[in-house]
Design a protein that fits this description.
- With about 70 residues, this protein is α+β, with helices and mostly antiparallel strands.
- The chain has one domain.
- The protein is about 65% helix and about 15% strand.
- It is built from two helices and two strands.
- The chain has a two-stranded antiparallel ribbon.
- The chain is elongated and about 60 Å long.
- About 0% of the residues are buried.
- It comes from Paenibacillus foliorum.
- Keywords: Membrane, Transmembrane, Transmembrane helix.
- This is DUF2905 family protein.
Length: about 70
């Protein structure tokens, strides 16, 4: 099979999984409100640092990329 076609298929599957997780996970996971996320609100000023959420997303994406590389060898 052509490597570009294989990459497109795997990319499509990853996007489908991400979409399903986005829909289902939003109801059960509190991404954006994890312990470690910093929110500062003072009057009209609001700032938000989603540190823990970024770490979780990074770990999940790293795992997905590792699996994609492992399956495409």
């Amino acid at each position: 099979m052509n490597p570009v076609a294989k990459l497109l298929i795997v990319g499509g599957i990853v996007m489908i999984i991400a979409g399903v997780l986005w829909i289902v996970g939003g109801k059960f996971l509190n991404l954006g409100r994890l312990p470690g996320d910093i929110a500062v609100e003072k009057g009209n000023f609001k700032i938000y640092f989603p540190i823990a959420t970024c770490i979780v997303i990074s770990v999940v994406l790293s795992l997905i990329m590792y699996l994609v590389r492992w399956f495409t060898k």
